[in-house]
Amino acid sequence: MKQDKVNVKVVPDTRRSKTGERFPLKLRITYKGIRKYYATGFDATPEEWEQLNSTEAKGNLRRIRQELGIIEKDAARCCEGIVPFSFSQFESSFFEERIYTESVETLYNNYISELQSKDQHGTADSYTTSINCLKKYRRSPQLGHITKEYLEGFESWMISRGRSITTVGIYLRPLRTIMNIARENGLIKPETYPFGKRKYIIPTGKNIKKALTKAQLKQIFEYPTDPGSGMEKAKDFWIFSYLCNGINVMDIALLKHKNAHPSYITFLREKTKRTTKGSPVNIVATRNTYIDGIIAKWGQAYTHPEGYIFNIAEIGDDSVTIRKKVKQFTKNTNKWMKKMGEELGFEMPVTTYVARHSYATILVQSGAPLKLASTNLGHQSLMTTERYFAGFEMGVQAEYARKLVEF
Fold first, then answer.
1. Do residues 44 and 59 share a domain?
2. N or C end: fewer C-beta atoms under 10 angstroms in the chain?
3. Which strands make up the sheet holding 6-12, listed edge to edge?
4. Is residue 203 part of a domain?
């Protein structure tokens, strides 16, 4: 029987756009005047689509063009084998096959590119780390490989290599997002989705937040340093973070002179700007002599309201450059603070992360309402704040234990 012509082509679905004027790229099948569209897992801006169809496609765009070409060829081959052609048969045959041949790394790379286009470089890095680890466990993983058994095997493999259950969860959450995208785009059938009840549950380690005691904090404040030394700078910025509501280094780097008022400092958390865009949480930290002294010592002279207070980053730096500078500054600060902690005999490494959680814990232990702590930390949920609470000091617990037998 002569097969009526089936037209196969990948096109942008301009009927709906995603964030940033990006359009999903769909596999369009046309048969007897009927058109149906199927997700490919890729999207592009109009400019990127134009490059994809030219000889100018380079780097990631060139890779995407190759992947789309493979999808078109596979779909055309599948259509040729269906006589007489029917969309239902095509869907059954083509997508059943592609579940096992679609590259997980391709889906990761596409999503990573989307994150980078929105300047979410930190999140993009976590996805890169995730796929690199999955490739070490099994080279070139495909959608069909991601089953309950695969995930259980990955967990066991990680544990056997000395990694914690918390780390397993950190690597598998990005994979779950990728599988969610694959499911939403029709690349896998709902019944093959491997996460959830009676399937694979991503482990959650007991993540006890690290916080120093008041006695340890006093030791840090009183620790002697040489003027202008790396240790002095690290100590001052660590204390600045602790006193300014546990502000992280990225937000310190982005503080501008307009954020510094005579009696307080205000800022928005860079980490949550996107998720709180509709109702931004303006954090207010009360200034004191320590904060004033650190700004006077390490701050830059006022030139205009938009100038940065500290010289960690420079006006005009793009987001990638700022992130690299902040990462290096954090690394240097942590190096000196860990050394200080070792000299003071602390069991836990003293990092900028510890400064934030020490602020939260000491604030709550001092009797501050949890709602105040939540507001000062820039949290939208009290549950998030509760996870910062590291618990009472052992001396306090021992005191309560003694009271149990004071009849």
1. yes
2. C
3. 6-12, 23-31, 34-44
4. no
Residues 167 and 285 in one domain: no
Place of tokens 């801006």: 45
Determine contact, residues 44/12, Cβ cutoff 8 Å: yes
* Residue 131 and residue 79 in one domain: no
Quote the pLDDT of residue 44.
86
Overall residue count recorded for the chain in this entry: 407
Model confidence at 396, pLDDT cuts 50, 70, 90, reads low
Among the listed residues 322, 250, 248, 312, the one whose alpha carbon sits nearest the alpha carbon of residue 285: 248
Find out whether 140 and 103 touch, Cβ atoms under 8 Å: yes
Domain that holds residue 345: 214-399
> What would the pLDDT profile of 224-233 be if each residue is shown by its tens digit?
999 999 999 9
Pick from 68, 101, 134: which residue ends a domain? 101
Q: Quickly tell me which residue has 């070139």 as its tokens.
A: 140
Are residues 385 and 280 both part of a single domain? yes
Mark out the alpha helices in 81-197 (DSSP H runs).
87-101, 104-117, 121-137, 148-160, 165-184
Tell me whether residue 206 is in a domain.
no
- Indicate the residue among 127, 158, 192 that finishes a domain: 192
Residue type at 157 in one-letter notation: W
The tokens describing 235, both together, are: 């100590």
How many domains does the chain fold into? 3
Would you say 138 and 105 are in contact if contact means Cβ atoms under 8 Å apart? no
What pLDDT digit, counting tens, does each position of 233-292 carry?
999 999 999 999 889 999 999 999 999 999 999 988 887 666 555 566 788 888 999 999
pLDDT the model gives residue 306: 94
pTM exceeds 0.85 for this model: no
